[in-house]
Specification:
Layout (H helix, E strand, L loop, with lengths): L14 H28 L7 H23 L8 H24 L11 H12 L2 H23 L16 H6 L1 H73 L8 H30 L10 E4 H18 L3 E5 L5 E4 L1 H17 L6 E9 L2 E8 L20 H6 L7 H11 L3 E7 L3 E9 L7
Parallel strand pairs: 2-4
Antiparallel strand pairs: 1-3, 4-5, 5-7, 6-7
Helix pairs in contact: 1-2, 1-3, 2-3, 3-4, 4-7, 5-7, 7-8, 8-12, 9-10, 10-12
């Protein structure tokens, strides 16, 4: 067995977590052993070498204290993995040695706590690969055999637990071979069963992972298809809208009023269709095969907000909604301009869409410690309390949104949340029915050298 052998279980991939967990578990065991020794002496009156037991317990305490200090000061990077794997093997060997000493001094095979070796084999089986587990089972078997042989041949003394076993000291020594065989069989079977259970679980886990990979591939293919189709649709639809506006404005010549009214309605529907296509593009892009990678650069937040405010002012004017922005000039963050535009564009569009004539939509940002607090506030129709928790779900539209506008994908806020997550930020919402909605976006305030 090589000490640097890889620890297999995915649940224990971080050696630091496992080692620190063993240290904490050992503190609990030390407290339990101390309580058992005190009870054996003062409650049950067993004749045991208590001075030696206290010395062994003190050594165990000191050993675990050293382990604890080492684990707290360790940096478990990849380069140090071999060294820490060796350290972990040392933890296991120390546990076997101290458990063997403590059980030997308290009756050994006569002591029911001898079966704690099986518990330790279970832990070892879940953490180490099969060969390492069988190696430890053999080493443990040899250790138990030597102690049993020493007691049976009276080379080393047997510490009798009195009436606990129902036999006198000589009878207990005569029963050592039978008890040893039973213990070894139990230890071996425990190791074998746990290793096989772990292997079956890992095999099933691999099958599940293969199935998940297959479905992830199908999902990526679907997203790529949506991305390609919506991208191809956007150009012709945008061209149709452009021609509509040219005719409505009279660029191609005078048209009858009825024709103008019909084209205005068609243009409105075309604009809604373009909005849906843009949302589908953003959604498919974020779920496409390749990871979404956006360059993080210094971004003047005032410029981004002013750009989006000016972009959507015509839409606000059509509804007689006041749209304004309020951002300090010096507020610069390291971020992605594209993702910021996606966040602001969706939130401002929704705010205008669901705010009545004469209402107000405001966009503001200010630093709060190591964060930027961005707000999009409106005094529109608001969101019902039972629907607030659902608005970030894909394809979800509130009841009042469906009443106001039949068209829509329900993807806008889901896209906003994904964009905020990609920027390592978070989004929350507060809303009162018929009073308005306030979206809060918190983004990390990073310096340029932190990119």
């Amino acid at each position: 067995m090589r000490s640097e052998q890889k620890i297999e279980s995915p649940a224990y991939a971080d050696l630091g977590i496992v080692i620190r967990w063993f240290v904490r578990l050992r503190w609990v065991a030390i407290a339990g052993v101390l309580g058992t020794i005190v009870a054996s002496k003062y409650l049950f009156g067993y004749q045991l070498p208590y001075s030696t037991l206290y010395i062994v317990l003190a050594l165990l305490f000191a050993t675990n204290l050293v382990f604890s200090r080492i684990s707290r000061g360790s940096n478990l990077g990849f380069a140090a993995r071999k060294a820490f794997a060796a350290q972990f093997h040392f933890h296991v060997c120390a546990d076997y040695l101290f458990l063997a000493l403590l059980t030997y001094l308290t009756g050994f095979l006569q002591n029911p706590f001898i079966y704690f070796f099986c518990f330790h084999i279970v832990l070892t089986s879940f953490i180490f690969p099969k060969r390492t587990v069988y190696f430890y089972v053999i080493v443990l078997g040899v250790l138990l055999f030597l102690i049993s042989l020493g007691e049976y041949t009276t080379v080393i003394p047997h510490f009798h637990l009195g009436e606990l076993s129902g036999f006198n000291a000589d009878e207990c020594i005569m029963r050592i071979p039978v008890r040893f065989i039973g213990l070894i069989i139990m230890v071996g079977i425990t190791g074998y069963l746990i290793v096989n259970i772990k292997e079956r679980l890992e095999a099933r886990g691999q099958l599940v992972e293969l199935e998940l990979d297959k479905y992830r591939g199908l999902d990526r293919a679907k997203s790529q298809f949506i991305l390609q189709v919506t991208h191809e649709l956007r150009g012709p639809v945008a061209a149709v809208r452009g021609y509509h506006e040219m005719i409505i404005k009279g660029i191609t010549g005078e048209v009858p009023q009825k024709t103008r009214d019909a084209l205005t309605k068609a243009n409105r529907r075309t604009r809604n269709l373009l909005t849906i296509i843009d949302e589908m593009l953003d959604f498919a892009y974020m779920k496409s095969e390749e990871e979404v990678k956006h360059a993080s650069v210094p971004v003047n937040l005032k410029d981004v907000i002013d750009y989006n405010v000016e972009l959507f002012k015509p839409m606000a004017r059509q509804k007689s909604v006041t749209l304004r922005g309020n951002v300090p000039k010096e507020l610069t963050i390291v971020s992605s301009r594209d993702l910021m535009n996606i966040i602001l564009g969706n939130l401002i569009t929704n705010a205008i869409k669901y705010t009545s004539s004469g209402g107000t939509v405001s966009v503001s940002a200010e630093p709060e410690g190591r964060q930027i607090h961005l707000q999009v506030v409106d005094n529109g129709m608001g969101i019902q309390g039972d629907e607030i928790g659902k608005i970030f779900e894909e394809f979800y539209r509130t009841r009042r949104a469906r009443e106001i506008e039949n068209d829509g994908t329900g993807l806008g806020l889901s896209i906003v949340q994904k964009a905020a997550n990609l920027l390592q930020g978070r989004i929350s919402v507060y809303s009162e029915l018929n009073k308005g909605t306030r979206f809060h976006i918190y983004l990390p305030l990073m310096q340029a050298e932190e990119v």
